[in-house]
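[retry 2/3] Helix-turn-helix domain-containing protein: previous attempt timed out, resubmitting with same input.
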Amino acid sequence: MPPAPTRKTQGVNAVERALTLLDAFVGDGSRGLAELAKATALAKPTALRLLVSLERLGYVVRLSDGRYQLGAKVMQLGATYRSNFRLDQHVLPVLQRLAEATRESAAFHIREKNSRLCLFRVESPQAVRDFQRPAALVALDSTSTGQVLKTAAWPGLDDGRGTLVFASARVYDTQTASVSTAVFGAGQALAGALTVSGPAERFTADVIVSVADELVQAARGLSSVLGAPMPPVSAPPSIQHLSAAA
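[retry 2/3] Helix-turn-helix domain-containing protein: success.
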């Protein structure tokens, strides 16, 4: 059997520049050539050539005043994306990778009024693990998951403190611990909580730091997929340890 083809990691510069131009319209109804060139760090002649191609294909429209705005083709792509979007296709692979990396159970919760709902879960590969059924509705509590869903807010610009991660032990019950952080979506809204959980005795201080690193990477990647423009961070996760009275 011939070997599987390797995935190329080098892209096409012209395509990336054209998509960068489209990105420059986010948050603005229309923009002029000079604005677009400045926003994308492209030379004006380069930006103009790309805009001509994008206009010909319907991705941008040139207005009577010479400014540009997004065209109908972008709206058609957006409608196709929304009609075919399935949250499980994006969340479950993330949970699978988290469970493999941490060897603990990984779950995605959303808030339903004053409760948390486990939408998706991947079990730990270890024989001894915590247990929770997906679709289980639990009152918002002082666990790491509950705190994320009650308090998480859009992080804004890098404040030097790192992404907020909650850690709790023996709060939901006397046997389990969990580490959680927020996942955001379109409009910078909280989409849910990403949680890794397992037997409390396995969640030592070093393990919590390692799990927090994995969680933050996973949550940032998932947030980007869900439409949240995640700001850069320059510090390790900021871990807040919780007690039953939190």
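[retry 2/3] Helix-turn-helix domain-containing protein: The first helix runs from residue 13 to 23.
[retry 2/3] clearing retry counter.
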